[in-house]
């Protein structure tokens, strides 16, 4: 598991990437993050990040009913979100390559 | 604009110091009551009491604002706005105090030139505000300032009115105009008093502005050259 | 059903969130805990702490891309100060741009406050070159207020100094106060306020005229834990809004929040 401080800078990137693949709601995103082995993210980190994406127009919300329990807030990526995703993905690659070169092990 | 706001808020500030205000307002009364039987003596003492009261209160107001003034300057206020506003407020207070006591004298004493008594008290109040402010500007600590004011008022009371020392006292004009009002002297007394009062007022107001202009001066730094990272 | 959502909403409102928006966030947050079939208290922790956290998160810009530093707001080059024969410091260099926070640290008596006053223009340096943005806000360690005036009257007074109309100065002051989770009383003279609340007033007064550069001299004296967090959140907000902040501090664990550290040390001088 990635320690939280590391994830913090790239959480938005991860969320946007997942939303690009398909719209999702909070719980689903948490599951996908955990399944990808990135992080077991606490709700207190996840939901504020989602709200922030919404507030900045990077993700647009919509409400959908669920089979069980209350309706859910689904998020879809916006064009602005896609732009940010591309920019941040670029940054991430640069960062990752830099770290890799430092620890002397290239990703295959 | 700034001056009027400062004046209004200084007035409110003074109004809230209930106990101090009560003592300051009553102080001239004791001066008056001691020689109430002698018209000239009692009105002159009363006037000196007003002078002392107004100048001391101004001293305390000036000192209380010591922490605020530099910050007001940094926010953009001018020295004239800050100090002028405070002087307006304290002069207004002094005139009110003088007006109140003038009514008392009018009821209690029988005076020919009553208007001249009013002139004496009003002018003294107007001098007392910048005088207290100047002392406050020169002596930053309240105790020192209060003692200096006490000394000046004591010398003023005890000095031979015809002597040289008395003429260098800030409230000498009160004696001259008072003599004209009560003892029926010539108008030259009146003019001498007015001239002395005008000179002292100018000296104190100019002095207090000059000291504060120096004390509240801000270093002017050039703005950084515009450059981006 | 617990009263967690209610306490959460109340804290949001106290932090300056519109009531309508707070209700909405309260409902959503409850629903989010519901997605995980968890109790909000268990899931998000204490209501007021999560409210603070959420507000801070929503106000910080979106992650990884660090915003570019802005124009230079303050530049000190070889600045020195001596009182008679005693040298306080010499050779101090520091550059702070818009969007940056600089901390001045060092032992007691090494001249931290003097340097800040020099930056403000209240004290003259003995030597060196200083360039500085024109609009500057200065918050002293203590004092700097008139004891017999109320907080609102202070807003009017400082607003007038900056050429603001009284009504605008008051509403601006009240708004800035709410961001420090403080609601000024109408009648209470400042001398009756607690030390921490007085410092909040000081902060608001330093910011009232919208300065480009904020100079803060250990402004959190008397703050409780919550106010202390509010303060640093506010510093980050200023930074994110493109302002430059210089703060004198002795709290080393806050230094990770700042962009520059100037250690005046025992001999003075030098950017770390």
TrEMBL record, chain A:
- The Transcription regulator PadR N-terminal domain extends over 15-86
Q: Pfam families, from UniProt? A: PadR
Matching entries from InterPro entries are given as: Metal_resp_DNA-bind_regulator (IPR052509), Tscrpt_reg_PadR_N (IPR005149), WH-like_DNA-bd_sf (IPR036388), WH_DNA-bd_sf (IPR036390)
From which residue to which does the signal peptide run? none
Q: Which PANTHER family match?
A: PADR-FAMILY TRANSCRIPTIONAL REGULATOR (PTHR33169), TRANSCRIPTIONAL REGULATOR RV3488 (PTHR33169:SF14)
**Which named protein is this?**
PadR family transcriptional regulator
TrEMBL record, chain B:
Q: Where are the transmembrane segments?
A: 19-34, 46-65, 77-103, 115-139, 189-214
**UniProt keyword terms in alphabetical order:** Membrane, Transmembrane, Transmembrane helix
Do the record's keywords include Transmembrane?
yes
**Record protein name field:** ABC transporter permease
Automatic annotation (TrEMBL), chain C:
List, alphabetically, the Pfam families matched. Answer: ABC_tran (PF00005)
Cell division as a keyword of this entry, yes or no, is no
Tell me which residues make up the ABC transporter domain. 74-272
Give a GO molecular function annotation for the protein: ATP binding
Keyword field: ATP-binding, Nucleotide-binding
Could you tell me which InterPro entries the record lists for this protein? AAA+_ATPase, ABC_transporter-like_ATP-bd, P-loop_NTPase
This protein's name: ABC transporter ATP-binding protein
